[in-house]
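As a warm-up, study this chain.
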Amino acid sequence: MLITDIFRLATRMFRTNRSRTILTILGISVGIGAILFLVSLGYGLQEMILRQITTSEALLSLDVSTGDLENLKINKDTIGDISSIPGVEKLSPLVSVQVQMGVEDISSELTANFADSNYFRLDGTTLKKGSFYKDEPGDVKKVIISSSALQLFNLSEDEAFGRLIRFSIFLPEKEEDKIIRESVELGQDFRIVGIIEEEGSNYVYLPFAISEKMEIFDYSKVKVKVDRKENLDIVRSAVIDKGYIVSALSDVIEQANQVFGIVQIVLASFGIVALIVSAIGMFNTMTIALLERTQEIGIMKALGATSLDIWNMFLAESIIIGFFGGLGGIIIGMAGGEVFNYGVNLLAGALGGEKIDMFFTPYWFVLLIISFSTIVGLLTGFYPARRAARINALEALRYK
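Now compare it with the structure written out below.
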């Protein structure tokens, strides 16, 4: 029997038993759609969270700090030493000190971080509002502040921009085995140009050039960017051998990916339960089709059809049902995701929140799920096809 003949006979079910076939395909589609919806939700949440906390440069960066402040320092000599390690592309130091910040008649103590523009890229810092300052003389009086610090001065985010602020920096000095704090005024003409979304920490970023003018050459930590991912562990080991503490954002991302992987498996499990139920319904449909067409199978065998032809015909039917079930599942899953996402964004807009995209479906997963549904159809139709192929022609002709 030709392949075209097998295909024509296999698709005859859409004409003879249209309602039952469509309902069977719909059952498969619901199971596949549930898997696609839940897994896409898991991927979407993962992408949304990771996109907010990292950039491509941040994934290639290391945080170098020291736990021994007495005997081990991070200074210009350290910068030169680390930069000579093969694989290191750029470095960006950070100086952290305590300051007293004043806005009009309100003042409060918080942490000041002196950093250049490269540090924000290597750290993966994103702004909620405003812009970053540049490493130019005209930007030396610009600062970036956390949203939590704004609350100390009863300032809204819109009110913060353009306000003149002043700083007094506390520089620790050691005198007769006692640490004292010397206060240095920086003036009153600084202004906020950017706001970082941060609810649990009060800090402000100032241009790194200010710390150099104040001759602060002991750094709190330094960002080290490697040229490619393969050198990340090599550079890390080299820096650790020098006695420094090294951490990487990529470690956090890897742990987060592992957690999201587990979440996706759990979510997919719920969809698989629905798919198993629909597969049982498909198995029942193919079994009923076998009983209804027993005499037809006998006639086909009497006219010269082989057991292999009968086998191929039933398998073709189940594969077609599985394929269209997967195709319908993709439509249901994506449509359900769009509707759910629209509802969430509608609610977020009504409550004053930002719009988000909670669903992400990789292209490879779409191809995988179509292949998976087709395989489910193949496996479901395997037993009915085997049983149909073994039917005796004479017994089939007498069957009623």
